[in-house]
Each structure stands twice: as structure tokens, then as C-alpha cells.
Specification:
This protein has two domains: about 200 residues, Rossmann fold (3-Layer(aba) Sandwich); about 90 residues, Rossmann fold, CATH 3.40.50.1100. The longest helix is centred in the middle third of the chain and has 18 residues. About 55% of the residues are buried. The chain starts with a helix and ends in a 15-residue tail after the last strand. α5 links the parallel β3 and β4. By secondary structure, it is α/β, with parallel strands linked by helices. It is globular. About 45% of the residues lie in helices and about 15% in strands. It contains 14 helices and ten strands. α3 crosses α8 and α8 packs across α9. The protein binds pyridoxal-5'-phosphate. Pyridoxal-5'-phosphate binds next to α5 and α9.
Length: about 325
Amino acid sequence: MPAFEDVRSAAEILSGHALRTPVRSSPIIDAALGATVFFKCENLQRGGAFKFRGAFHTLSKLPQEQLQRGVAAYSSGNHAQAVALAAKLLGSSATIVMPHDAPAVKVRLTASHGARIIRYDRYREDRIAITRELAEKQGLAIVPPFDHADVIAGQGTAALELFEEVGDLDALLMPLGGGGLLAGSLLVSEKLRPGCRVYGVEPLAGNDGQQSLRRGVRVRIDTPQTIADGAQTQQLGELSFPIIQRAVADILTVTDDELLDATRSLGGLLECPVEPTGCLGYAGALSLRDALRGKRVGVIVSGGNADAIAPVPPRQ
Ligand SMILES: *Cc1c(COP(=O)(O)O)cnc(C)c1O
């Protein structure tokens, strides 16, 4: 089980490799919410998402012989790109299993780091089985997207930087897929700011996390249809779930319409590219507006690798 100390040591390993991403704010959003909101811009991380943190941390802990044989990953995009980039930086090679309907920009960026890409059908084929078979045949180490102690510890470093930079927060919201980002962040908040209420935000169509929290067991769902392609996971991780169960304030859901609105306004207001999955935390903050009034609120913007979405002003 990963612990706070693992996040601290991940931060040391990542120093000089991952970017210390900016924390931005928007007077328009602060006025609209009646709160002070700090956005941790992981959409500006290397590879366009926080996933670089977990991937680089995990790869850098592998033995040199393993890096020489190579690594493998399955992902709809951001983890793929992160593993491909980390492999390139560490002199390894990456094989990535990606769905046929992954956003074109994510496939292109992954290929640009020199990774070998294998496509599969997200709704019919088992990506884990495909990856395992490849890994076994070729001696590759699988780097899972969320359910791995080193991945969780790496992802936690974004929240660590946010708390270091802005101090006390009353609430912290972020996207929830398999729970690597949320579990890592909770290890940090539990230790440094136990009074901060931390929320995971899921697309309504893929609310396995919320169902799991309510029922006390990891609920598995069919691959959800949602514009939040980075949160199309079917089930929380074995490692992430107990941490989430122990420390999360709640798991919220937003509809794809709410998420699309949030996505269309956030990129312009923060003046940087955002992708729908990356805006789940902000969409959750909008839905929690009354409870957040007068509070200091952190929001992790988790990624910015979207196929183009036309920008429009926020709704009144
Ligand atoms: C992977 C990803 C998520 C979900 O992260 P988990 O650790 O699986 O919960 C959220 N946002 C973006 C942009 C992602 O790439």
C-alpha cells in the first residue's frame, strides 16, 4: 500500500523531470462561485496530463535490464503518452495498446515519442489480456494506468505541490477514473491538511466510483459512453479504492452536458488548452457551488489533450 512518504520520495525523483505546473485563478470564476479557486494546471504538464508523474516515477524504479527489454501499457491516451515519453527519456522502449476510438491527437502524440502502438476495440476486446500476452512474449514490464503503488505515489505529487504553494484549502476537487490521481492526492491531504474535504468527480454515465463508495465494494460497470474519455474506466483499483473509501469526502457526478459547458468555458478563462476529462473537477465545483461559497477551493485540471472543441463564453 502506498503511503504519504512514497509521495514525498516520488516528488524527489520527479524533481527536474516533471514540470512544477502553474496554479492559476480566474476573477470571473471566483465571482461566479463566490469562492477563491486555485486551479492546478496539470494540463500544462509534460505529455499534457498529470499521468507523466506516475509513469516517470514507476519507470525510474524499474531495474536497468527491464528498461532495456521495454515496457507496455494499455490506455485511451494520456497514460499511453506519458509512458511513451517516460520510456524515451529513460532510454527504454514502449509498446502501447490503444482503443480504435482513442482521440486522434492522443494517438499521434503517443506515436511521436517513438512508441509502438497496437489498436483494439474498446467495447469488445479485453485490453488487459492483450497487453499481458504481449508483455509475456516479449518480456515487457506492464505499467498500469492507476492500480500500482508507484503510479499512485507519483500522481499524488500534483496535490503535494498545490498544498505547498497555496497552503490551506477547504475543499479540493479532481477528476476520477480508476482513482490513481484521487488516491495519491488523498495520501497528501490526509497527512498535510486533514481538514480539507477532497472530492472525486465522475461522468454520470460512468459512476462506478460513486456506486462503489455507497455500497462499500468495488462496483464494475460496462465501459461508459461519455466525452470524458480519460474517465471511461470500469472499476476503481484494488489499491486506490481502500484509500478513497478511507479519506474521500464524497464522489460527485456531472452529466456530459454540464461537462461540455465547463470545458468550453474553462480553457478560455485559464488561457490554456483543456480536455473534457480534465474539467471534471471544475464541473463538480460548479455543481457544488452553494457548499463552496466563501471557501478556498483547489481544483486539479488533469489534462489538456483534446481533439479541437470550439471555445464559447460561459453560460450565465
Ligand atoms: C487518466 C486521467 C484521469 C483519471 O485518472 P485516474 O487516476 O484514472 O483516476 C483524469 N483526467 C485525465 C486528463 C486523465 O488522463
